[in-house]
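Um, can you check?
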Amino acid sequence: MSDPTPTAVDLSPDDAGADLRECAAALKHDLGKYVAWRSANLPESAWTGALDDVAAASIRADVLATRDVAGAHEPAWELFDRLTQPWPRPWPPELEAVAASVAVLRSHAAGLADDDRAAIAAARTDIRAAQQTIRAELASLHRRLLRET
């Protein structure tokens, strides 16, 4: 799935702009890419019709194992928390939007972890919207930071 080396960004005062761009790139790649890696390719019917095994497994894997390092699964919210830990506060609007979407994913953790098909089916519209927001906002943040160099 992704690079097995955990991403760490040290925001030094010497080159904070470059460090923020690096952090944004890590978020875009590690979270934005993999939070919907499998489920992005599901047919529209998977999001509205009966929840099949492939759709349930794809959604669960994307959210609960967004990053897989040496067999250890890191859910989307843990990855987000780790990668944003060095980011100075207050966060830019794009990162606030991502945080809100990650909170949506986290709110469905129990149903996903339990493979509760009724809960996953009920949550999939919210999960999909959160995935799309995460991807779009991280891409936007990264582009903006590149332009500001």
Remarks:
- Residues 1-14 have pLDDT under 50 and may be disordered.
